[in-house]
Amino acid sequence: DLKLDHNHFATMPSSIEDLSNPLHARNVFFRVNQTLWSVTNQTPSQKLHPDHVTVENGLLYQRVLRETDQFSVEITSFVPSRNVLAELHKVVFKNTSKASQLVKPVIGVPLFSRSADNLRDHRHVTSLLNRVIIENEGIVNRPTLSFDERGHQENHLAYGVFARSNRHSKITGFWPRLDQFVGQGADLFYPDAAVKDLSSPNQPGDVVEGYEAIGGLAFDEIELAPNAQITLLFGILLGEESSELSKIFASIDVSVYDEWLEETKAYWKKKFSTAFVTIGDQAMTGWYRAVGTQPLIRRVYGNSFLPHHDYGRGGRGWRDLWQDSLALILKSPLDVRENIVNYFKGVRIDGSNATIIGDKPGEFVADRNKIVRVWSDHGAWPFLTTHFYIKRTGDLSILLEEQGYFQDKFTHYTKRVDPLYVQNGSVDLNSAKGVYQGTLLEHILVQNLTAYYNVGDHGNIRIEDADWNDGFDMAAKSGETVAFTHLYIGNLKGLIQLLHALRNSGRTHIKVFEEFQLLMNKQVHGPLSPQKKREKLLHYFDTVAKGISGETIEILIEGLIKDLEVKIESMESHLNQNEWMTKGEDGCFNGYYDNDGQRVCTLEGPVRLTLTGQVFPLMAKNVPSSRLQQLAQTTKKYLYSDTYHSYHLNTRFGENKMNLGRFMGFAYGHKENGAFFSHMTIMYAYSLFENGLVKEASEILDEYIPVLLDIQRSKILPGIPEYIDPEGRGLYHFLTGSASWVVITLVEQLFGIHMEEGKIFFQPKLSAHHFAQGEATCPVVLVDKEILVRYLNPDKLEYADYEIVSMNKNSELMPTKHGRYQLSREDVVEGDEITLVLGRKQ
User: Fold this and answer.
1) Mind spelling out the 3-state secondary structure of 39-104?
2) How many angstroms separate the Cα of 274 from the Cα of each of 3, 123, 164, 385, 780?
């Protein structure tokens, strides 16, 4: 479908089932010698004699070629990268027969022109608001009101369908009413306006009120000689006025269309970090390039505006915001800096956060459905992304940038409401001294330390209303997420690294609001019991809920490091002693506790295991080296599928006891209940690489990617879906954070282009098959300069057999530094090509 947001859909809102039932699709009909044919392949003749179809899927454009034994039709579609609200199509009909043909073109695009809520709510009543204007080259609907959950508002948006033909001087049939275009008793697949020789009910200048609208545009029937063709340009345009849309379309001819298409291709190619990757054969290279588009597409569309949109009403979610930024950091880190600073404004002073990002920078909403909740993993992602940014740029100063806090009526991790809060919605956090702002480092500490104290009776972080797996949403009372306890401890380790870096830069203290010291341990010797941790957290919640003073204090960095070290030591010891499970040769981590306080995972009896429970210990580097192989072998034994070469998210847990989450009600193998979940599979591969299990990590990518590339099995265009179902079909093609992790794994692990403090270190983990003609390339941004990294493997060596033997910059030999191949910002200029030659290990 085509839309601006939840309340402004130009075409009918569509979900997964509509893809195979395109009744309200954009359609172009050609009546050829009195037989109807359409680009949606739904006419009776096409059902009997299907077209031969070729699809070309490029960087945000699409070309479809449909061929019959009498003619061909090529449709090229794209949305211009220019600041114009348009979707443009070029349709070329060619007579490929040896005889002349009588051809009549008709365009039919139903115009929904209102909120997705009106699909069922006031569907007919809202059609009474339609005011359809006939223009010389199109039809425009500008409803009088926007009638949705926001109330009755004056509408300021026009929705138009325009067309032009190189073989016709003008449009001769205008059909603004859906019922008249279809005809009594007919349908949109075989409408009267396209089938019959009907006279047009309207002419330019007419206004039609109060009916369902369609952009129905007909051209006269003409005789087309063999090899001759008709070129149609048509577009769906949005703007404020009918005249504005007419003016825009009038400026677009075939040459302008072609110019804008090439301009759009170039625009997106510059945007995607993987656009110039070459890795392995052509298909694999194309796949990695396609995956590179997905984080940016989700950034544009959010979670709710693509066919698989089962995540609510719109907007971008908190977790998506931070994970999608990971891939964007690889392409243009300095451009992401401002976004990161703005995003921290969504953090509450109690460590929770708004869940939805508004339309403006720094604008946040508690929840899209007005059901305010806390996900236990939300506090972990901001640090992960900020740390990644700092490693790629060396920009420690971002930690000291100041930002406000999100404040609304909810306190105590949204469990209580402030009775004195009188604002409508949210405002900046106020203190006794006025609006308060703290450093990003302070925000990070608040989120991670409140999580550290928010533990259940078994000593792990409480699951709250869900964690990363939204399906674990029925264990808020007594549930615990062992998986994300690992990740938070990993964050504390990363924080210590950054605090050391700040100290090494000359700082001895950091500034925090005075109430922050309630989150530090007065006694840094010995762990606190779960009960004592909860009491400490409640005291902090009670204190900040009353309002902070606005006074700040300076705390010694060295003291904070010691405090964090004690926290890490006690929790890491707890996790490895109490949550590691063994039986015979098997060994792995428990992932969760349910709402009855019972351990979810077990190696006894029917094995119950989660992939998440193994990924995050690895990612946090919490797994002792002696256990790494055992964990990997056990995970593969119980979760790996030889059929689809991927990992189940969990084993079959059995009956739905209503004490863990809605996922238990899903059919096993679908969605969060045991599906082959790409996100966690790729994060698992990344984490295995990080822990030195290169062979095991490489096998995951080498076996899973071909499954996705096999279109007869995955039934999707190239890219990575959220998951594949038990029959191997890819689902939720763009609604997935796995694309960001694919790109990160590609750059940081396979190509081994690793950064610390803005310096590049090269540690490739490529296999022999990743080299096309002995070469693999990857673009990378070194702070603000894009360079191309090229690995040469002339002897086709495998990872275990090679090492870097030389490095060149534009054919100039570069020396090693401290015995390592590395580059700093000063070593390169924009556009440099860095070539590293791999030779046999000595």
Assistant:
1) CCCCCHHHHHCCCEEEEEEECCEEEEEEECCCEEEEEEEECCCCCCCEEEEEEEEEECCCCCEEEE
2) 28, 43, 37, 19, 9
> Distance (Å, rounded) from C-alpha 676 to C-alpha 680?
9
Helix-helix angle 612-619:482-504, to 10 degrees: 10
Q: What is the pLDDT of residue 522?
A: 66
The pLDDT of 259-270, averaged and rounded, is 94
Sorted by sequence, the CB contacts under 8 Å of residue 99 that are 6+ apart come out as: 226
Higher pLDDT, 455 or 468: 455
Contact 130, 26 (CB under 8 A): no
Which residues are 820's β-sheet partners? 817
Whether the predicted pLDDT of 523 surpasses 60 = no
Q: Distance between CA atoms of 647 and 635, rounded to whole angstroms?
A: 9
Kindly report which listed range (102-111, 595-604, 812-821) carries the lowest average pLDDT score.
Answer: 812-821
Q: Judge contact between 617 and 623, C-beta under 8 A.
A: yes
More reliable by pLDDT, 758 or 26? 26
The alpha carbon dihedral of 682, 684, 686, 688 has a sign of negative
Tokens of 792: 């040469």
Q: Please give the pLDDT value at position 373.
A: 79
For Cα atoms 794, 798, 799, give the angle at the middle one, nearest 5 degrees: 115
Give the C-alpha separation, 319 to 354, whole Å. 11
**pLDDT for position 818:** 79
Report the pLDDT averaged over residues 180-189: 95
Structure tokens at 813: 């030999």
Q: For 147-182, how does the pLDDT look when each residue is reduced to its tens digit (9 = 90+)? A: 766 678 899 999 999 999 999 999 999 999 999 999
- Give this prediction's pTM: 0.93
Question: Mind giving me the DSSP string for 348-381?
Answer: -TTS-B-SEE-SSTT-EES-TTS----BTTTTTH
**3-class secondary-structure state, position 740:** helix
Give the per-residue pLDDT at 420.
81
Structure tokens at 590: 């428990």
Q: Token pair for residue 616?
A: 């995050």
pLDDT above 80 (res 559): yes
Beta bridge partners of 461: 455
At residue 432 the predicted structure's pLDDT band, cuts being 50, 70 and 90, is: confident
Give CA–CA dist 720/517, Å, rounded. Answer: 44
| Helical segments of 217-347, H only | 242-250, 254-271, 282-301, 318-331, 333-343
Q: Report the b/e string of 652-680 with b at 16+ CB within 10 A.
A: ebeeeeebbbbbbebebbebbbbbbbbbb
Q: Which two tokens stand for residue 638?
A: 């119980």
Is 10 within 8 Å of 112 (Cβ atoms)? yes
**Residue 632 token pair:** 């990997």
